[in-house]
Amino acid sequence: MFTTNSHPTGRHFLQIPGPSPVPDRVLRAMSLPTIDHRGPEFGALGRQVLLGMREIFQTKQPVVIYPASGTGAWEAALVNTLSPGDDVLMYETGHFASLWAQLARRLGLKPEVLTLQVDDPVLPNAPGWRRGVQADLIEERLRKDDAHRIKAVCVVHNETSTGVTSDIAAVRRAIDAARHPALLLVDSISGLASADYRHDEWGVDVTVSGSQKGLMLPPGMSFNALSPRALEASKTARLPRSFWAWDEIVEMNKTGYWPYTPNTNLLYGLSESLDMLLGEGLPQVFARHQRWAAGVRAAVEAWGLPIQCADPAVYSPILTGVITPEGVDADEVRRLIHERFDLSLGTGLGKLKGRMFRMGHLGDSNDLTLVAMVAGVEMGLKLAGVPLADSGVRAIMAHFERG
Ligand SMILES: *Cc1c(COP(=O)(O)O)cnc(C)c1O
């Protein structure tokens, strides 16, 4: 049997920005016996979670659930709406945005990647990875595309590699201002159910999401929220698809079933997490993450270390990226913290490797687990010889004491 026995006492601190800590309620719900996926009980479960997911996406349109990681739902969004050789405009806010562009290239699409070029003394090699999507750059590019060759605009809502969110409503306004018919495809794999997200109101055509971040589930399930325009586009899109094809799934989902075997026990977990999130109320869920994030940032500011996100207007409520001083290998700090305090932090991805680490504040957390995370990081930074201006632990405690 697989065992995580290297630290025998207490719970591991899973503070990476996904998979997030899974609530015991969800784990218990998932331990129920697997049922017949064509039987009468299953239809009721399927209908319930499909309706619940519409509330989470804030949409009245169909949501498709795949037994796959988020990457599968990325692929599904592209193959259902586009044709071989189509131009797509993809905005690079970080590593996940660049992986989505790579996926598009492998599918035979022609991604054009936009990113921000500005002087950044802290991270001169990745200034665009410290800021959100600049909607004006998208508008400017679309205005030049008189022939409407660009078929879709792809952006990441919460860039998990950096801790920067983007203003999706502004991207929709930019597309409309340019009077351009491109579809708007958004990755909210880590933003959904933690940061405010409004699929219908923001005019998104496909939103991609996954189970293991804000929904507080284990990995293995992912989502596409659709729009009428996306469904229309899927009728003429020519990229090959079978497993990902919306038509069959959407039709069968009307009765709560799938064309193939869905992951039954993850759906039990989803039903439970929907009860938790919708029971609390989405505005409360979003405010809770904002408050946690502000507490964690207070700690980073007390240490005197730069936050990866350089624009306070778009700080992520889900995770905080911390840049380590020049010459300090962030991965070595992470390794030390894991070894000494059984606490996992997110690594610096792509261009950020070794330069930063990421602290997650999502999933089954509370004020005290986050204070403990900050304590573990603070001890690790000291052990690694990083000079700290002040105590982050005192700062996060003061933040949470205020209410
Ligand atoms: C986690 C994540 C992904 C990748 O999802 P997988 O489930 O690992 O395939 C893509 N984009 C973002 C923004 C993510 O946070």
Automatic annotation (TrEMBL):
E.C. number: 2.6.1.44, 2.6.1.45, 2.6.1.51
Q: Which residues form the signal peptide?
A: none
Q: Where is the Aminotransferase class V domain?
A: 35-299
Tell me where on the tree of life, at the top rank, the source sits.
Answer: Bacteria
Query: What enzyme class is recorded for this protein?
Result: transferase
Keyword flag Transferase? yes
Record keywords, A-Z? Aminotransferase, Pyridoxal phosphate, Transferase
Cofactor(s) this protein cannot do without: pyridoxal 5'-phosphate
Q: Which SUPFAM superfamilies match?
A: PLP-dependent transferases
| Protein's UniProt keywords contain Transcription | no
Q: Could you tell me which InterPro entries the record lists for this protein?
A: Aminotrans_V_dom (IPR000192), PyrdxlP-dep_Trfase (IPR015424), PyrdxlP-dep_Trfase_major (IPR015421), PyrdxlP-dep_Trfase_small (IPR015422), SP_NH2Trfase/AEP_transaminase (IPR024169)
As one GO molecular function, the record gives: alanine-glyoxylate transaminase activity
Give the PANTHER family listed for this entry: ALANINE--GLYOXYLATE AMINOTRANSFERASE, AMINOTRANSFERASE CLASS V
UniProt family annotation: Belongs to the class-V pyridoxal-phosphate-dependent aminotransferase family.
Protein name as catalogued: Alanine-glyoxylate transaminase/serine-glyoxylate transaminase/serine-pyruvate transaminase
- Which species does the entry assign this protein to? Hydrogenophaga laconesensis
